[in-house]
Amino acid sequence: MLLNAEELFSERALSFRGSEIRAIQKLVNSPEIVSFVGGMPDERLFPVDRVMEATMFALREYGQESLQYGSTEGLKKLRVLLMDRMANEGVKDISLDNIIISTASQQGLSLAAQVFVNPGDTVIVEDPSYVGGIQAFASMQAKFCPIPLDNDGMQMDILEDRLKELQKAHIRPKLIYTIPNFQNPAGVTMTLERRKKLIELAHTYGLLIVEDDPYGEIRFEGEPIPSLLALGGKDYVIALRTFSKISFPGLRLGWIVAREDVMKKFIVGKQAADLCAPNDAQYLAYEFISRGWLDEYVAVVRREYLKKKNAMISALEQYFPTGTSWTNPQGGLFVWVKVPESIDTAVMLREAISAKVAYVTGIAFYPLRDDNCHMRLNFSAVDPEHITEGIHRLGDLLKSKI
Amino acid sequence: MLLNAEELFSERALSFRGSEIRAIQKLVNSPEIVSFVGGMPDERLFPVDRVMEATMFALREYGQESLQYGSTEGLKKLRVLLMDRMANEGVKDISLDNIIISTASQQGLSLAAQVFVNPGDTVIVEDPSYVGGIQAFASMQAKFCPIPLDNDGMQMDILEDRLKELQKAHIRPKLIYTIPNFQNPAGVTMTLERRKKLIELAHTYGLLIVEDDPYGEIRFEGEPIPSLLALGGKDYVIALRTFSKISFPGLRLGWIVAREDVMKKFIVGKQAADLCAPNDAQYLAYEFISRGWLDEYVAVVRREYLKKKNAMISALEQYFPTGTSWTNPQGGLFVWVKVPESIDTAVMLREAISAKVAYVTGIAFYPLRDDNCHMRLNFSAVDPEHITEGIHRLGDLLKSKI
Questions:
Q1: Boundaries of each Aminotransferase class I/classII large domain copy (chains A, B) (predicted)?
Q2: Could you say which of 3.10.20.600, 3.10.150.10, 3.90.1150.10, 3.30.1660.10 is the CATH number of the domain covering A11-46+295-401?
Q3: Do B280 and A13 touch (CB under 8 A)?
Q4: Cβ of B278 and A11 within 8 Å?
Q5: B144-169: buried (b, 16+ CB within 10 Å) or exposed (e) per residue?
Q6: Helix, strand, or coil here: A35?
């Protein structure tokens, strides 16, 4: 008789959530479909020649070491370089003990969930929020307290009310998870005022903030706003950063900044998770950054993504019917569209794919899965002409439904 | 007032175990010390020129794709190649749906722990066992049921007794974790007869076996024994493999073979953990293997590690005092030494480091931390002359204590 593995699964595994994005991506492989699905950088902009040069240099100089195990904390000279980079952004008072290299920022989310979340613990998240963040916390059986967003980011008055209610109920949330810049999926950015308020609330209620900032450097309009880490310091802020959007997701490299007591737990958690981040990739990243090539590449990305974003906003204005609305991000990869409540974007997706255009259904990003009238549109991976064409197709479909 | 982060840590985080190996490694950085500590392959054998050639080819042919996100399951053509490789070892009845690329085999252990272990669940482990395995299961708050080893591997009569006792107590263990070939730390190999018995017990008691086999291909003496996966099939065996010992640990690549229902959970767990394995490394691995270079490299490793192992055994025979004993592995990286019970190897370590030789204290490998009279000696990372010198130093120290 075949073993019934389900009898052996943990309660944790039963609470796992699959990623709708990855499921949808499998449906839209055809080149005829304009896909606004992924959250991927535009690989056509990758400076492959420079990657080859930096890789060759690293292998020639450090080949044996770079192919060997690295330390769990990560390559020291890369951490020094990243620490300096963050100092330039106004992050003070961090030392090498406060920074480690992670297997991209998804691992940072996974470690935060493991280190802080008991089954049933409350985690405050933005509503909507990043699918991978929801997955990481759900996999450790978190209970979500979602706080709605508006154009200025997480709504602090609502957060404060919720924190008061939770305190009355003797519930201490473990973490506040936020993506302050060009939020995924909503594309909005938290204002300076709200950032300050969030840090004040963290102090008042004794909470740690997880600041997930994959897109901050990809600002193509407006003025940068200091990060929560720069404003609030490491005592109350755990910062997650990644190379995935500012350079090459294939490397699986990110970094985590945290206070030392938290970092010690993250390091042991990382040992159990995968021992160390890819080592050859760390040498490559070091060479790529130290030559100034990362900054040059990010400048190209900003310029090209602005064109893409503008193409998308223009097309939305031209082709989308009355009753729809969207965010207009100053950076990042995503536009977030609201459609009339009579339309269920999850139901409409099959029709969209038939019409040769695809998006991510909004429900994927709602921790409580309680909204059906949004869609996330990625512009980074599509060229401007196809953006216009895809939005045209989607607009026609929406018009047929309104 | 500074936030007290300890108030926020999960119970899971409080059960985290640090790695004594990584702690000891930090003490033995001096080149004067002969270090038998690490579990690292000999990087001086790495064919860096071939890695450069394969890397350049991969970047030239697939640069953009290889630097982009990959699928959670891993690069398809690499999975096909590994599937064929396993078929050659006698593994039947697996398809692409049964194999994924992991961020080395440590991630396989982490996922197995997450998918199966509720806090307090029993996991059967070898006594002693791999530190990283103990860490992975401990981090999900497993309770360990350790089964002693002898020269023929896990002792099946004791396992059967324990399974009967557990059954009487209405406890169903979740997993049996074993390293059948050249076990870490003990260096012993499970006999064919015991492998068959283990599979029989898995059937009888409805248990899954986690077969961790990083060293199987590094057999330098004797005849290969079929894997548990080949003998028992995927229904009862989850197999973890890695490139870390047969090639380059810096890449952080391994693979997992499992039945489909289990694999579905592993895939969602991997999404939450790190989305996908390093993608550029997967292209490199594919090119390196498909050129036949992996097999050529493993042949070199077998030949050179045999020399190292022989140097270690000879030196042990020459320099170690009466009352000590050791295993004589037919492959892998480790010799396991027993000293008289009057000696505590954890206490002796400081003296050894003063005498310019280092090892891993045996207690690190005991799930219940109940043995002080063993030490693990790595021979793969040290050259034969230094092995002789280091064993001489350690032998002198031991003689002074007996």
A1: 44-394
A2: 3.90.1150.10
A3: no
A4: no
A5: bbbbebeeebbbbeebbebbeebeee
A6: strand
B65 touches A at CB < 8 Å: yes
Position A1 scores a pLDDT of 64
Asked if the Cβ–Cβ distance from A43 to B56 is below 8 Å, we say no
CA B42/CA B64 separation, integer angstroms: 32
- Yes or no: say if A293 and A81 are a contact pair by the CB < 8 Å rule: no
Q: Would you call B93 an interface residue with chain A, using a CB distance cutoff of 8 Å?
A: no
The CATH class that applies to domain B10-47+295-401 reads alpha beta
> How many Å apart are CA A34 and CA A379, to the nearest integer?
11
Q: Where are the beta strands (DSSP E) in A287-348?
A: 325-326, 334-338
pLDDT at B1: 64
Interface probe, candidates A17, A27, A40, A110, chain B, greatest B C-beta count within 10 A: A110
CATH architecture of B68-291: 3-Layer(aba) Sandwich (3.40)
- Which of A2, A8, A49 best probes binding to B when mutated, by most B CB atoms within 10 angstroms? A8
Six token digits for residue B392: 């001489």
How is B36-100 classified by DSSP, letter by letter?
-------GGG--HHHHHHHHHHHHHHHHHHHHS---SS--HHHHHHHHHHHHHTT--S--GGGEE
Distances in Å between the Cα of B10 and the Cα atoms of A10, A114, A269, B6, B352 are: 17, 7, 12, 9, 37
Task: Dump pLDDT digits (tens) for B275-301.
Answer: 999 999 999 999 999 999 999 999 999
What are the extents of the domains in chain B? Answer: 10-47+295-401, 68-291
Chain-chain contact of B115 with A9 (C-beta, under 8 angstroms)? yes
Lookup: tokens for A244: 């995935």
> What is the residue type of B95?
S
What's the pLDDT tens digit per position in B8-36?
A: 999 999 989 887 787 788 888 888 999 99
Q: Is A321 exposed, middle or buried (0-12, 13-18, 19+ CB in 10 A)?
A: middle
CA distances from B57 to A62, A249, B51, B79, B287 (A): 19, 20, 10, 19, 8
Cβ A212 vs Cβ A320: under 8 Å? no
Looking at the complex, report in whole angstroms how far the Cα of residue A97 sits from the nearest Cα belonging to chain B: 15
Listed in sequence order, the residues at least 6 apart from A204 whose beta carbon sits closer than 8 Å to its beta carbon are: A163
Q: Minimal Cα–Cα distance from B388 to chain A, Å?
A: 24
A with B: how many residue pairs have Cβ under 8 Å apart?
A: 278
pLDDT above 70 coverage of chain A, percent: 100
Three-state DSSP state, B191: coil
**What is residue A200's three-state secondary structure?**
helix
Confidence class of residue A402 from pLDDT cuts 50, 70 and 90? Answer: confident
Residue of chain B whose Cα is closest to the Cα of A53:
B56
Interface contact B68-A249, CB threshold 8 A: yes
Q: Do A115 and B9 count as a contact with CB atoms less than 8 A apart?
A: yes
Nearest CA distance, A48 vs chain B (angstrom): 6
